[in-house]
Amino acid sequence: KPKTQIEFLDDENAKKLYMALQKTNNVKHKTAIMTLLLTGLRRGELCGLEWDDIDLKQGTLTVARSVTTVNGFGKVEKEPKTESSNRTISMPERLIKQLLEYKEWQKELAKSLGDRWVNTGRVFTAEFGDKIHPCNVLSWLKKICKVNNLPPVTLHSLRHTNITLQIMAGVPLVIVSGRAGHARTSTTTDVYSHFLKSSDKEAAQK
Q: I want to staple 53 with a disulfide (CB 3.0 to 4.6 A). Which of 6, 62, 171, 202 is the partner?
């Protein structure tokens, strides 16, 4: 099929969003968007995350399921997009610290709600611990952008941002592809060919 123009943030706008997140008072919204920006997860993969998938000591995150919406059925939990989408990746130190802070916040919230709290084991939940609707995450991102006078961006653009910045930073393609959960490195080269060409010119100069 014909290639579509991917939407992503350049490094300056990615930094602006990151700095805006640091000023965000809602720790759940802040942590969710930071996770997307710093790992390149898909929206459904984020909504399917459970605390058992995250090893804060080792600093790793495992994608084991995804949540999507189907007309007439609502939220549907399924296997990740492809076999390679089921993956374990390392997290940056700043995200590990943020998740630790958020986990403590969630524990206190559960304690304060008592038997009203639904223990689903999910990392990101609805108000009382229920499984979250993927559209909720987009509303969190829109609110953060609006409050900080940033141009509106999509959740999937954060994934593209993460991947393109890795490529521009010279991360080996096989690593980029593996972290993205692409079935083949050719998927990465097809979608991000423009950025690979830019990196190739840079490599020639170096």
A: 62
